[in-house]
Amino acid sequence: MKKLPCISSDTHVIEPPSLWEDHIDPELRERGPVVVAEDDADWWYVDGDRFLSFSGGDQTGVRFEAPETLRTGSRFANVRPGGYLPAEHLADNEFDGIAGSVLYPTAGLGFYRVRDPKLFSAICRAYNDWLAGFCSYDPGRLKGIAMLTVDDPAEAAAELRRAKELGLAGGLIPTAVGEADRYDHPKYGPLWTVAAELGLPLSLHLGAYRLWDDLVKRDAGDPTKTRPSFFVTVSGYVQTALADMIFGGVFDQHPDLRVGTIEHELGWIPHFLDRLDFTYTQRQDNASWYRFENFGSPSEIFRHSVFCSFQDDALGIQERECIGVEGLMFGSDYPHSESTFPKSIEIMDERLADVPDREREMILASNVAKLYGFDR
Question: What is the pLDDT of residue 1?
Fold first, then answer.
């Protein structure tokens, strides 16, 4: 089988402890993210609340050798240097058969739970400044995704414009928001318009939740107490976000907008598409809902407008024709403990063994290259 170059659509940085101290607005520095060394591990704190530790950066590949040793807490001193040093990051990528990466935060995902809008906005801006510097080491191979707050959609649109000027390649919006702020609300129009105008994809990444009560109910607010059922059923958040966007007319009104489901895998999508179409055509009162002008069905919108980043989903690959192979793209999730590193190519060779070379190349490289502007 011909080996093909691979580009990861979902890779992560591990934010160094000094990031926000160095970059956040000075008046918010005392309330901003800080690392506290406790007896069990180093933990990020924001405004007195505890968030993530550093286990996502020092257990890379452990699941292949000793999964029973995986743990929630760790020290920054144990983090793989490729998580925060671009030269080391690229070296690890090359070792894993990865030619380039789309970069997402790690601690930053958890910080979407910071309640104060002003503080969270400052956290986003500081991270984006740091990430732009990280990617400037090799902008042809490192494509950064800016953190965005959607509490004020006009502010999010302005920060997305600034991210473009910084050289970043897309925006990260919350995968879950409160009931009053769901994505079928017309207030998000300025953000959708700017993202489509700039050609910058927006991402719905696992873990980026602008929620509080629901996470507490599911024991997901504290990483040391999260139930295993949370991880199994977590795709429900992204399904709600995408369904609201589709039924709310977001993609019908902004056909150039691209939004991605990141790290939720693929197997749920065929049933989701079936339920979208059934609901649009056969539920009571559907004639009173938004009716599409540019598309025939919700599933057509999904295949046109939604891209799907996955790590290792054999079932989803089997269902690629139903999902739409043009939107599928592999992501290694390096350097997290659930990543495919250092076996990414080995795993993908096995998963794609029966997939035609043209589709294989699309999934491993050309889809993400086209979306984010990688130079093949």
Answer: 39
pTM for this prediction: 0.96
Is 58 a member of any domain?
no
Angle between helices 269-282 and 235-247 (to 10 degrees): 30
Quick check: is 22 in a domain?
no
Angle at 228 between CA 15 and CA 349, to 5 degrees: 70
Number of structural domains in the chain: 1
DSSP string, 37-95: E-SS-EEEEETTEE---SHHHH-TTHHHH-GGG--S---GGGS-GGGT-HHHHHHHHHH
Report whether 363 contacts 330 (CB < 8 A): yes
Query: How confident is the model over 300-311, as a mean pLDDT?
Result: 98
Residue 148 has pLDDT above 70, yes or no: yes
Domain span at 293: 6-12+81-105+123-372
CA angle 153, 159, 161 (to 5 degrees): 110
Cβ-proximal residues to 240 (8 Å cutoff; 6+ apart), any chain: 176, 182
- Does residue 17 belong to any structural domain of this protein? no
User: Model confidence over 22-43: pLDDT tens digits?
Assistant: 999 999 999 999 999 999 999 9
pLDDT at residue number 18: 97
Q: What is the enclosing helix (H) or strand (E) of 251?
A: helix 250-253
pLDDT value for 212: 83
State the pairing for strand pair 42-46/34-37: antiparallel
